């Protein structure tokens, strides 16, 4: 966590719900009337997925040292105040003066953070100036540590040997792997047990990072906010929310 003592200025880069910890830092700094420059960079899909938008705009009006820049990847045309497209190396250099000498905090999905770190490296930002947090990483690690040993030759059953009832089988077509779906288990959690890589971030159905295509079967989702109408029509689902009582296959 940044307290204001560690550097003269701060760059905060958040993707999707990854802006949440950045908001905590920004609130603390503006509350104390911190004098350093705050460069807040947001990457999201569209205005509907820009959380804290109203609060950030209000804080920017009240604090001249808060500089807000937003890149939206899924808007069809330019919207005033927002950049159409993804964050790029050129944008980072344009938005943050002397970026190579700044302290930078990043939070978001692993692919977003990896690509951002690579861009910052190309901009000569030293590794010791980068600080990152990965939403969902601890839950994923726990799921991998708890992964049961499986016999690949054992037949799939509706009732496991220990008496635990399963809801069906999920097949990850791209990876060529299948596993039982345990009661109340999501497709994302099942994927982590068998080392199938599905990008994820918030795990609440809001950010849309874990979108995958449902190839067969039916699923239920408690939250679908991370899906566009077009994605729903195309058979896309949120792996972090999708559960099933039968056999399903997904593109992953």
Automatic annotation (TrEMBL):
PANTHER family: NADH OXIDOREDUCTASE HCR. Residues 145-167 are annotated as: Disordered. Keywords: 2Fe-2S, FAD, Flavoprotein, Iron, Iron-sulfur, Metal-binding, Oxidoreductase. Residues 168-252 form the 2Fe-2S ferredoxin-type domain. Its cofactor is FAD. The keyword Flavoprotein applies. GO terms for molecular function: 2 iron, 2 sulfur cluster binding; metal ion binding; oxidoreductase activity. InterPro entries: 2Fe-2S_ferredoxin-like_sf, 2Fe-2S_ferredoxin-type, 2Fe2S_fd_BS, Beta-grasp_dom_sf, Flavoprot_Pyr_Nucl_cyt_Rdtase, FNR_nucleotide-bd, MRET, OxRdtase_FAD/NAD-bd. This is Flavodoxin reductases (Ferredoxin-NADPH reductases) family 1. The keyword DNA repair does not apply.
